[in-house]
Amino acid sequence: MTARQMPASQELIRTRLVAPPAPSAWLLHPAIDLMFCCGGLVWLLVALHVLLGWSPAHERSLAGTASGSLISLIGVLLLSDTHNAATLVRLYGDRQIRTSARSIAYGAPLVLAAIAAASMIWTSLLGVVLLAYTVFIAQHFTAQAYGIALIYCNKRGYRLNSADRKILQVLLQATMVFAIVRQFAEPGFRSAKIIGISPPVLEMLPDWLLYASLGGVVAAALVFAYLVVIKALRERSYLPLPALLLVATSVAIFTVSKDIFGLLWIYVPAFFHGSQYLVVTTSCHLKHLCRERNLPASKAATLIFTRENLEYWGLLLFIGIGLYIGVPALLNKLGIPFAIAFAAVFSAVNLHHFLADHTIWRMRDPKIRQILVA
Question: Between 81-93 and 338-360, two packed helices, what is the crossing angle to 10 degrees?
């Protein structure tokens, strides 16, 4: 019997058998995504911080700060340091990526290593480099949030046309601009020290620019909210909850008041950004394991505690500890103060991470899109 002669019911069954499985609505698992990728854990830790009466970040005389700082330190070790390692593993573990991004894989590390070496000699330069880090971190956080929000929309069939995507991008870019402007316009906003190093004090921008940039965030947020509501009313199409939580958290962590900002950022680097990145990279790693085992990508979460994935996490932890503890300790043995060595290594590794992350995660690349959206 030919395909043309095949009854409709049998044709439907055949189509279902050969059709690829639908992508999972989550990167890994609902609980993991909501807690570690969309900001849920940050808000839970902040709520715990307040309920237990722990002090805000600036009230160092109260013992509660130490409790929050200890949780943050553990998070940084397990999530933030390892998320940088995940970029290095992907960059240097994939020959094709390494070859196509030679300047990032080989040129940038040499330049940044030279800057780090010079920074350990001239600490004034180190302050400038760390100041650059605080500027670029806003762009890095918001760009990552934009990309992951698009992944959730793609996974759930929430169609964003070019204008919709542009408005979302403008909202997060406006948030980035405000985050940068307030560092140089809002008195006392930026800490006097970054990782124990004093950067140049450059509160030189006028107040009106601060308010104008905040107005840009509000305007973009209102336009984006309008588009989301109109799409819901006209098309019965609703912005996926993970994307909504992710965007809302990304905007909030940069626009809240100074005191709340200080409290949030005890936890944000590890339990929002770092953990978010690890969810994405772990998802990609597990999907590769699924291919090796002839499993659909939707089964990725079932492989979390396999030996291969635990070895992957162990490698990331080993690299993170080696970079942020081992290398500064070795430099300290050579006579460089540990705080100076750590700050120099920290800035060099993170600036390279910003460059590499921008290069290797491109949603426009069909191969990257296939892995992320599966």
Answer: 50
Element (H, E) at 230: helix 207-235
- The residue ranges of every structural domain in the chain are 26-55+63-373
Q: Distance between CA atoms of 42 and 220, rounded to whole angstroms?
A: 24
Q: pLDDT at position 192, please?
A: 65
CA dist 26 → 32, 34, 117, 268 (Å) = 9, 9, 42, 21
- Judge whether 187 and 159 are in contact, CB under 8 Å: no
What type of residue sits at position 142?
T
Could you give the dihedral angle defined by the CA atoms of residues 134, 139, 142 and 147, in that order, rounded to the nearest 10 degrees?
-140
pLDDT tens digits for range 8-44:
445 444 444 444 556 678 999 999 999 999 999 999 9
The first and second tokens of residue 268, run together, are: 């944000």
Q: Hey, how many other C-beta atoms are within 10 angstroms of the C-beta on 228?
A: 20
Residue with tokens 């309008």: 226
3-state secondary structure of 197: strand
Average pLDDT of 336-359? Answer: 93
Give how far Cα 281 sits from Cα of 43, 254, 278, Å: 23, 24, 5
Three-point CA angle 191, 251, 345, nearest 5°: 45
Q: What average pLDDT score do residues 317-340 get?
A: 95
Task: Tell me the C-alpha distance between 288 and 309, whole Å.
Answer: 11
Torsion of CA 100, 354, 252, 60, to 10 degrees: 160
Q: How far apart are CA 150 and CA 88, in angstroms?
A: 24
Please work out, in degrees rounded to the nearest 5, the angle formed at the alpha carbon of residue 180 by the alpha carbons of 179 and 184. Answer: 115
When computed from its CA atoms, the radius of gyration of the chain, rounded to whole angstroms, is 23
CA-based angle 30:137:71, to the nearest 5?
55
Tell me whether residue 363 is exposed, middle or buried, using C-beta atoms within 10 angstroms of its C-beta: 0 to 12, 13 to 18, 19 or more: middle
Residues 93, 308: Cα–Cα separation, whole Å:
15
